[in-house]
Amino acid sequence: MSLQSTTHADQQAFPQTEVGATELKTIPASRMIVSECKDHYFSENNGLFRPLFRYISRNDIAMTTPVEAEMMPGRMYFYIGADASHRELSSTDEVKVVDLPERLVASIGVRGGYTRENFNAARKQLQAWLNSHPTHKADGEARGVFWNGPYVPWFLKRFEVHLPVIERSQNAD
Asked: In this record, what's one Pfam family (predicted)?
């Protein structure tokens, strides 16, 4: 695997939400790998990234964006790109292979560092937006969706917060 392929992702799992925009969007069904911890996602300081990176390096899988994260307990997900989507991949002690179904999310696009404070501020803004759209409601916990690698300066980084949603008519309040 070349240095370029380990530091730059050529494949995107889905289109980005523009910075400053809020939208409903469908995330396609995906094969992913996940590492997890018992603590909050932001307390791990790359501890979740390393096992995933070792896994894609050992299995010659191209880096794909974005990286997704659940906050508590902390979980980091890498998308498996088209180059390896049909290969037999096995879970390990540190990394699990999972298949996620198509998902509808409310998404907000943000620029800034990948911090707990920035995530929480965007999550609150997204929840306020969703509260003003009565056709949908939250159906789970917010996830962080990170588009840039560690060498991109904080002020250029892009991320999203996704909140799984359902139509209100699907589930009575």
From this structure: SOUL
Question: Do residues 106 and 125 lie in contact, with contact meaning Cβ atoms separated by under 8 Å?
Answer: no
Cα separation, 83 vs 152, in Å, equals 25
In this prediction, residues 96-112 reach a mean pLDDT of 97
Residue 95 in domain:
yes
| Rg value, the chain, Cα | 16
pTM: 0.89
Residue 134 forms part of a structural domain: yes
| Residue type, position 159, single letter | F
Banded model confidence at residue 2, pLDDT cuts 50, 70, 90: very low
For residue 76, give the CATH number of its domain: 3.20.80.10
CA distance 88 to 99: 13
